[in-house]
Design brief:
The protein is built from seven helices and ten strands. The protein is an alpha/beta fold. The strands form two sheets. A six-stranded mixed beta sheet has the order 6-7-8-3-9-10, sandwiched between helices. It has a four-stranded antiparallel beta sheet with strand order 2-1-4-5, covered by helices on one side. α3 crosses α4 and α3 runs parallel beside α5. It is globular. The two termini are 20 Å apart.
Length: 222
Amino acid sequence: MIKLNDIEKYYTNKFIKTYVLRRINREIEEGEFITIMGPSGAGKSTLLYILGMLDSPSEGEYYFYDEPVHKMSAKKLTELHKSHIGFVFQQYHLIDELTVYENIETPLLYQKIKGGERKGLVADILDRFNMVAKKDLFPNQLSGGQQQLVAIARAVIAKPKLILADEPTGNLHTDQGKEIMELLKKLNEKGTTIVQVTHSNENAKYGKRIIKLQDGWMQKEK
């Protein structure tokens, strides 16, 4: 599904290169649940953003289903991202002015799915996530856990091949965090590939493989 060849990310200031990622080589198979771990500044989120096509590597090759992402135009990257990737952020990134229903519907609007089909898909996912009663509420009327559920519902409604989760339980208390991780686990069991960034050893156990980063270098895998 994903193949990374010598991925590097750096920023140049005059003649000095500051590296964020160094020579990352990794393959991710469809249906895997991968955990990326490491201390702050290790390059975890940068790697996740490159996988999600929200950032580009400075050097190296990235293949997504054998398509050369590193050679794609910005327009093609946007299309690929919207069609195949769902993102879940620690800060939820919901649109404050939109209701729960409208937030969840947003990816379907991007894909130009017709109104009747959109209505059915949103209704199904509201029912699946037990949020029918909250569909007309705004994000600031929800708890943190409820906001993250909406964010995940929005991420999965378009049936992405890949879900990228950046510290998805970082702002939640223990019970809410476990609920979110169990939900991601169920999505993975149904075939969705998941890559999460986390500091939590408990959350890391949900992954089948752990990739550890240190100062931008990949350390070891287990």
